[in-house]
Amino acid sequence: MAESAVSHSHPLDTMLAVSDVIRNDRLAKLYARVLELDSPTVKELSEGIKSSTTTIYEDIKHLVEINLLERVTETQPYRYRASQVDMTIQAGGETFQITPTLLVALAERHSNENISLYIDRHGVSGLVTAIEYGRAYTQSKMNARIMAREQEIPVLEAETILQELQEIILEAEPDISTSLNIEELDAAVDERPDE
């Protein structure tokens, strides 16, 4: 079952809206930019996005209609805020968490070669899984060796994507705790059986 934190939306509507953004790079970039700037105007958005102002207006209108953006001012110039998406989807015995972090990572796939390559190799579902590892990595509860072993990928690939995602996670999830406990981390690696 999917749950959503987007207000005034049925979870199915939110899932479809998020799916729309996942498939459309321009919408993902716009959502990520609004999230980054907190409550920008269209003019502020147009300074960082390579689209015409008309296209930005149309995309904002669409994102407002599907409840992924909300207008936060009543007078012009209007300011917009990104809705905090938090969905859990279960499919085929696996659970995937869809958050703004995923949308930001997808928005960066064409400007970030490492994220693009990871998506090419493992798909969006692989990226969702990597983000979960990335959260644990950012909180010093995980390292690249553990991810590499569990996901059966090279350690260098795991380290590369974890470092890329750490920056995105810290930006998109500023409340995440980042305390480092090396002894606890090493103990976790030593406790895992070799396969």
UniProtKB/TrEMBL annotation:
Source species, domain of life: Archaea
UniProt xrefs under SUPFAM superfamilies: Winged helix' DNA-binding domain
Annotated DUF7437 domain residues: 110-173
Every Transcription regulator TrmB N-terminal domain range: 28-84
One Pfam family matching this protein: TrmB
Protein name: Transcriptional regulator TrmB
Native organism: Halorubrum persicum
